[in-house]
Design a protein that fits this description.
Rossmann fold, 3-stranded antiparallel β-sheet, about 25% helix, alpha/beta, 10-stranded mixed β-sheet, about 20% strand
Length: about 425
């Protein structure tokens, strides 16, 4: 059996113990309560009353949901483990130490208990990484308040394996991990990497379904969220695709939340003005599956960096905002020219930006340009393309200012001279 270790300096105060149910007192009017069902029985909901609101128990929306399994997956050496550990630290830190507007899209409620089961790194390396990430947030180990616990196995840390009859059984490590969960009462359990949690065939749908369902059952029993750090198959990884999760398709079907971690591609590097050598230091996070939240629209970008801890170089990461060029593309400009030619139901758009009647801002918003800076650049692009601000007579015979294309569209009584 593998030797079990845990980081004592990250230990927490005594675990929460739920109060015992009050003893039943027979009064002759009501039958005694039914015996508590065993762990193998079905739960039954007879829907006897209507509830006005049944909120989901999010720990960090849309990443971690209590009683469910999230997977963070991508190629090796991209930053998955570092990102997961940063999330763990953000969850454990008190609110006073958290970034005001979240961190790379991750908004922590603060002061949550997190149990990290890490198999790829030893105790010393985990401690170095934690110290490096804490330094980014201007925090120390003491600020964690014992709410972060890191455990691991000195040898093989497999949790689930097959017996001689081909059935899935729990190892001694799994039983000890269950003991840690029972004693520590974590809000989140993070396990890294998934490939080392079991010894079953990775491409077997039936066996992998059992592996994930066993972990999901543990999440529900302990009322915690579980994050599994996993890998992607060799070859290109499509950002935001559940097919980029390595192994049987049943894994992607069993998890409820999934995120891809992908390296910066050549096209993105060119768009952002990043050199080929620099691109290796950036990765993106995209939602691949989210059964209980809206689809994500944009990637979250991160930049890897090196932090000196003592005399050692330690890898870390931080959110990164790519430079944005709001100048409209040729395709968008062509769309805008058509909208200018059509007018607002045939009436010329006014070049004044804002929430005004016939404002060209409305046409720009319909074309996907919503920011003020983007609309200013789009208006300049229209004028450069030959559009003009001209006077025209309205239906009430009053003069107004509108946008006219080089071909004189839309049809209106334009003033001969226009600027």
């Amino acid at each position: 059996m593998a030797e079990w270790w845990e980081d004592k300096e990250l230990e927490t105060p005594p675990p929460y113990v739920p109060p015992a149910a009050p003893a039943y007192k027979a009064n002759g009017k009501h039958p005694p309560p039914e015996p508590a069902p065993s762990a193998q029985t079905l739960w039954i909901d007879e829907l006897g009353c209507d509830e006005p609101d049944i909120p989901r128990d999010w720990i960090a929306k849309p990443f971690l949901l209590r009683g469910n399994v999230t997977s963070l997956f991508g190629h090796t050496s991209l930053g998955k483990s570092t990102l997961a550990l940063a999330w763990a630290i953000l969850l454990a830190l008190p609110a006073s130490k958290l970034p005001r507007d979240g961190w790379g899209g991750f908004v922590s409620p603060g002061s949550r208990r997190v149990l990290v089961y890490g198999l790829e790194e030893d105790r010393a390396e985990q401690r170095r990484r934690i110290k490096a990430i804490l330094r980014q947030f201007g925090a120390r180990i003491e600020d964690l308040g014992g709410r972060l616990r890191v455990v691991g196995a000195s040898g093989v840390g497999t949790l689930l394996e097959l017996d001689r009859d081909g059935g899935l059984v729990e190892t001694a490590c799994m039983k000890e991990l269950r003991g840690q969960v029972a004693a520590f009462c974590p809000d989140v359990l993070m396990a890294d990497p998934m490939a080392e949690l079991h010894s079953v065939e990775e491409n077997s749908n039936s066996l992998q379904r059992l592996v994930v369902s066993t972990i999901r059952a543990m999440a529900r029993d302990a009322e915690m969220a579980v994050l599994l750090v996993a890998h992607s198959p060799k070859g290109p990884v499509e950002p935001g695709s559940i097919a980029s999760l390595r192994g049987a398709g049943a894994i992607g079907a069993a998890i409820r939340i999934g995120y891809t971690v992908c390296a910066m591609c050549t096209e993105d590097a060119q768009n952002f003005g990043v050199t080929f050598e620099q691109a290796n230091w950036f990765f993106r996070l995209d939602k691949a599956k989210g059964n209980y939240s809206a689809p994500a629209r944009n990637a979250q970008w991160f930049q890897r960096e090196t932090i000196i801890v003592g005399t050692e170089d330690v890898g870390s990461c931080r959110p990164w905002e790519p430079p944005v060029d709001l100048t409209p593309s040729d395709e968008v400009l062509s769309d805008l020219l058509e909208r200018v030619a059509a007018g607002d139901n045939g009436v010329p758009w006014t070049p004044t930006l804002g929430q005004y009647q016939r404002s060209i801002s409305k046409a720009m918003e319909a074309a996907g340009i919503s920011s003020r800076k983007g609309q200013e650049l789009a208006l300049q692009a229209l004028l450069t393309a030959g559009c003009a601000e001209c006077r025209f007579k309205r239906q009430n015979r009053a003069w107004g200012i509108g946008l006219r294309t080089p071909s004189g569209k839309p049809e209106a009584q334009w003033e001969v001279l226009c600027k």
